[in-house]
Design a protein that fits this description.
It is built from five helices and 21 strands. With 394 residues, it is α+β, with helices and mostly antiparallel strands. The longest helix is centred in the first third of the chain and has 37 residues. It is rod-shaped.
């Protein structure tokens, strides 16, 4: 019995020794495994990273409005008459002083003839009065008539002279009314609207034809009162106009000194650089450059604002590090037009940052900058890489 018990103890000791040896081998293998396998890294492409740099930042103000001609005119009827002819239609070019049409002048010719005849009658009456006055002066000197008779002749001659002047003025008015039946273009430009047709009888001041001069166009934009103080005459703007593919440049020409009732907005007028296809009434939207500043800036999509303070993900020695930042002016880059934001504190110039296209990445994640990623001070963290999408989904 004692011998059997001894063999049992020996077998138990061997089992315990084997178990301890197995654990030691497994632990050693586990320690050696990471050293033999390279760490997994997130591979970044050129569009996934950006660098904080000193750039010229432009703050812009959004505006909208319609194009309109600086010079435009509406031809109106100066006399009441029937439209006899109109020789132009929408889109026709016209020159200043060009005859556009005519109103029926029959009535005004008759009135002119009547006024001229009345003026001739007044002229004859004046001749009679002046001859009578000359004769009476001789008679007074000879003592054949009294001084009162002479004074009456003087008054009669003055009245006849005034009547002649009034008749001539009436004839001039009739002559002008007749000439007003001829419709002429007050400015050079293009016919925008033809508002009547031949045969219609129109009253005085009726709108007949609208003319616009496309040689100078402007946009009238309403600016909020808190923003108008930053707008300066001469500030440059870039517009997008309906139907025009290329950007249209404009410049602030003047600012209305009074605010609009109700909205309290202030109208700003911008001269538009001419381009083929620009027409009055087209809708335009764009931005006015109201402030320029050289500052340390980064693209807006590199800033993450999902927490209490803005933060960025910086790549340092191949690892992702979270940096809290303070932001300043928002604007666009002068060279590319990309939306930028000024960073006043938190990172230095040359810092490599992750864009929003990478997605949410945990701090401490190893990253590798792929070929073509033009960033400062990049380092490869490991030779093995995963796609950005697969790592971001972890």
């Amino acid at each position: 019995m004692t011998r059997r018990f001894r063999w049992v103890l020996i077998a138990l000791a061997l089992l315990l020794f084997g178990a301890a040896l197995g654990r030691a081998l497994l632990a050693r293998k586990a320690e050696e495994a990471p050293a033999s396998r390279p760490p997994v890294a997130l591979e970044l492409g050129p569009a996934d990273v950006t660098v904080a740099r000193q750039r010229e930042l432009v703050r812009q103000l959004d505006i909208t409005g319609e194009l309109r001609a600086v010079n435009s005119a509406v031809v109106k009827a100066r006399v009441a008459a029937e439209v006899q002819e109109l020789g132009v239609r929408e889109g026709d070019p016209v020159e200043a002083g060009q005859v556009l049409g005519r109103l029926d002048a029959s009535e005004y010719r008759l009135r002119l003839r009547q006024a001229e005849q009345q003026a001739a009658q007044a002229r004859a009456q004046l001749d009679i009065a002046e001859r009578a006055l000359s004769s009476n002066r001789s008679l007074v000197e000879q003592g054949f008539i009294s001084r009162n008779a002479l004074d009456t002749s003087v008054s009669n001659a003055a009245a006849a002279r005034a009547a002649l002047q009034a008749a001539r003025a009436a004839a001039d008015l009739s002559r002008k009314a007749e000439s007003d039946t001829v419709l002429r273009a007050p400015i050079a430009g293009f016919v925008a609207q033809r508002l009547v047709q031949p045969g219609e009888r129109v009253p005085v001041d009726a709108r007949l034809i609208e003319i616009v001069d496309l040689s100078r166009l402007e946009i009238e934009a309403a600016v909020a009162p808190e923003e108008v103080g930053r707008v300066r005459v001469g500030a440059v703007a870039e517009l997008r106009v309906d139907g025009i593919t290329a950007p249209v440049r404009a410049r602030v020409a003047r600012i209305n000194p009074a605010a609009q009732a109700g909205t309290r907005s202030v109208l700003v007028y911008l001269d538009v650089e001419l381009q083929p296809g620009l027409r009055q009434g087209l809708f335009a939207s764009g931005r006015i450059a109201v402030e320029r500043k050289a500052a340390l800036s980064i693209p807006e999509d590199a800033v993450r604002i999902d927490q209490a303070r803005p933060r960025v993900l910086e790549v340092t020695d191949g690892l992702v590090v979270v940096r809290l930042v303070n932001l300043g002016l928002r604007g666009t880059a002068t060279d590319s037009g990309e939306p930028l934001v000024e960073v006043t504190e938190g990172i230095d110039a040359g810092s490599t940052l992750l864009r929003a296209s990478v997605g949410e990445v945990r701090e401490g994640t190893a990253v590798r900058l792929g070929s073509g990623a033009d960033v400062a001070g990049r380092k490869s963290a490991a030779p093995v890489a995963l796609s950005a999408a697969s790592e971001a989904g972890r």
